[in-house]
Design brief:
Strand content: 25-35%
Low-confidence stretches: none
Largest sheet: 12 strands, mixed
Distance between the termini: 12 Å
Helix content: 25-40%
Oligomer: single chain
Radius of gyration: 17 Å
CATH topology: Rossmann fold
CATH superfamily: Nucleoside phosphorylase domain
CATH architecture: 3-Layer(aba) Sandwich
Length: 250
């Protein structure tokens, strides 16, 4: 009997494209305002869920998709920001715990024990991993100073906005979960506020915002830097998934 599918939950269309490169027999689906793809990785059935930005959308998207697909596990997959020196674009984080930011040390959501098999597979593939917690926030942490403060407060090594929503939905569904994130911006790199106008809440590019930003010289340079970093992060994410997915046991 074929195993039930694994849900790979992403926020952005760019993350979705990186995951799609790993899949065969791809088909689209829509439900309750969310969309994604079904496909296969070798013998693993996969459901890709593009949730959009934020933990609330990630939680609602996974729960909505679970009404259509009988998931056996959920992974929060995509990009993250570094909170410690040494993390650079394309470095991977597979945390043992995700912290829901509460302004203090964060509410902890431990990932599934099967993470250790994934860590071993990534190590065997010579894919470097950052060791530490992932902080999941409601709003982007933009400045190097705020990133350092978040690390000092929580000890997290990286930050995202969706993993805690996947963790909450997976716990409600009674299925194991995991997070694999690829760093786009390092701890010493600012994340400009104008990026909010370049992406819709569903995670798709807002082309008017991109073109408007390209018209300004300083913003054009920032967009080019982030585009290069995003390409590195997407390639690393694809490589990481290709090593990690075969290691996940039903």
């Amino acid at each position: 009997m074929e195993p039930a599918p694994i849900a790979l939950v992403v926020a952005l269309a760019q993350e979705s494209r990186a995951v799609r490169r790993c899949l065969a027999s791809v088909r689209g689906w829509h439900t309750e305002g969310f969309h994604g793809l079904t496909g296969r990785f070798v013998r693993q059935p996969i459901v890709l869920v593009q949730a959009g930005i934020g933990g609330d959308r990630a939680r609602r998207a996974l729960l909505a998709a679970s009404g259509r697909f009988p998931f056996r596990a959920a992974w929060s997959v995509g990009f993250a920001g570094g909170l410690v020196e040494g993390l650079r674009p394309g470095d991977l984080v597979c945390p043992g715990v995700v912290l829901k930011d509460d302004g203090r040390t964060g509410q902890a959501f431990p990932v599934a024990p099967a993470r250790m098999a994934v860590i071993a597979a990534l190590s065997a593939a010579s894919i470097p991993l950052a060791d530490g917690a992932l902080l999941s926030v409601d709003s982007p942490i933009r400045s190097p100073e705020a990133k350092r403060a978040a690390h000092l407060r929580t000890s997290a090594v990286a930050v995202d906005m969706e993993a805690v929503g996947v963790a909450e939905a997976a716990e409600r569904l009674g299925i194991p979960w995991l997070a694999i994130k690829s760093v786009v911006d390092g701890a010493d790199e600012p994340l400009p506020g104008f990026l909010a106008g370049c992406t819709t809440s569903r995670g798709d590019l807002r082309w008017r915002g991109v073109l408007w930003s390209l018209a300004a010289g300083s913003r054009r340079r920032t967009l080019r830097r982030l585009a290069r970093a995003s390409r590195l992060a997407a390639l690393a994410l694809q490589r990481g998934l290709e090593a990690a997915l075969p290691a996940w046991s039903p």
